[in-house]
Amino acid sequence: QVQLVESGGGLVQPGASLRLSCEASGSIFIINAMGWHRQRPGKQRELGGRTPSGGTVEYADSVKGRFTISRGSGRGTVYLQMNSLKPEDTAVYYCNAPLIAARGVGVLSDVWGQGTQVTVSS
Asked: What is the pLDDT of residue 114?
């Protein structure tokens, strides 16, 4: 079974940095893109940023210049470097892969992780 697992969240003060990671389990041989979404308290889930396997990176306006998405050396690894964190960045951050192909499973669409909590507070 293919899973996305996020880690790296925590409680930090405004201005601090965090690095989130997401790793896909399973025998994956194709993963075309990965991205990060977040859900702030009382609000709907929103796009943070996403990166295709070999294309340009997209960021939401609210995080441009502060957040950086990068792909790891492994096929199913993506990082979210978050700098200059603000209280409004407090949210559960979810990893997402629109399309995954894995041995023994086939092709899966819109795969989500369970999320990792980020809290920015004084």
From this structure: 96
